[in-house]
Amino acid sequence: MRAVVVKEFGATPELAEVPTPQPGPGQVLIKLTAAGMNPMDRTLASGDWRPMPATFPMVLGADGAGVVEGTGEGETRFSAGQSVFGQLLIAPLGSAGTYAEYVAVAEDAPLAPVPDGMDAVVASSLPTAGMAALSLVELLGPLTAKTVLIVGAGGGVGTFATQFAVNAGAHVIANVREADADRMRGYGAAEAVDHTTVKLADAVREAHPDGIDALLDVVSDGDAFANLATLVRSGGTAVTSVYVADTDALKSAGVTGINFALQPSSDLLERLADALVTGRIVAPPITRISLDAAPAVLSGANGRPVEGKTVITL
């Protein structure tokens, strides 16, 4: 089968022929039809993030959607012909990559059925970004009438997080470029601030001199996050998905600091799918590319849309 791989950490991603996996006992073989791209895919390929052992050539990608083509002995959860989607960041890295035509995984992997009427491309855009967003917003606790700054709101995680926070009753300040401001207001964000035209912290402090209740940051480095966290009033919460929070320093200021790590599950996936099919949230803008184009996009050779999601169609 064809797959996008790296032959070692830091190598240039390339399209290669690799053996088609076969389902072992308790596994399902999925013929992939779409694979969602995520920023973490680059950090895994580079070796900058090594959450588990890897096998090479490492098939890249964690998010995917497709059709069950076969099942191994003893598998009962899914059946042939069923459409499924999920996040397959499974040890060893490279053994269940989704930038490929097929993947074989255990039936208890973070997978869920694709609801009737949901396009596979949309389904593949949901897992990592959607599960992270839902989990991040729920970490903040009750949000009715609370002010939340979402930094990096235009991307996949930010798009979903903005909608979940608005649905929870928050007054959302979305940090996006001006070109995406109307989209964020369409999601219900009360304010939009473009950090390329004004200093984000200064703009928020001017509009909210008494501080904000929560910071949800999916992009900032340690210094930038620490600066933005000064906007949070005592008793509030500052969450980062980049794991750069100095929780002790924040605690001394009366702020709960959280370094977020996603715990994927089938339950989260099912809740995401339900939120989308019932219209409580919508998917972000999606750019579709071919498997052949994926190596260049992943390496940055052709650039990559800053906002929304990029999905490989197979």
Biggest pleated sheet:
7 strands, mixed
Number of helices: 10
Helix/sheet category: alpha/beta
Query: Kindly state the mean pLDDT as a whole number?
Result: 95
State the oligomer. Answer: single chain
User: Tell me, what's the shape?
Assistant: globular
**Residues in β-strands, percent:** 25-35%
Total beta strand runs? 16
Q: Which consecutive residue ranges, at least 5 long each, have pLDDT under 50?
A: none
Helix content: 25-40%
**Gap between N and C termini, in Å?**
12 Å
Radius of gyration: 20 Å
SSE run:
EEEHEEEEEHHEHEHEHEHEHEHEHE
Structure notes:
This protein has 314 residues and is of the alpha/beta class. 27% of the residues lie in helices and 27% in strands. It has ten helices and 16 strands. The strands form three sheets. Strands 3, 5, 6, 7, 8, 15 and 16 form a seven-stranded mixed beta sheet that branches. Strands 11-10-9-12-13-14 form a six-stranded parallel beta sheet, with helices on both faces. Strand 1 and strand 2 form a beta hairpin. The radius of gyration is 20 Å and the shape is globular. The N and C termini lie close together (12 Å).
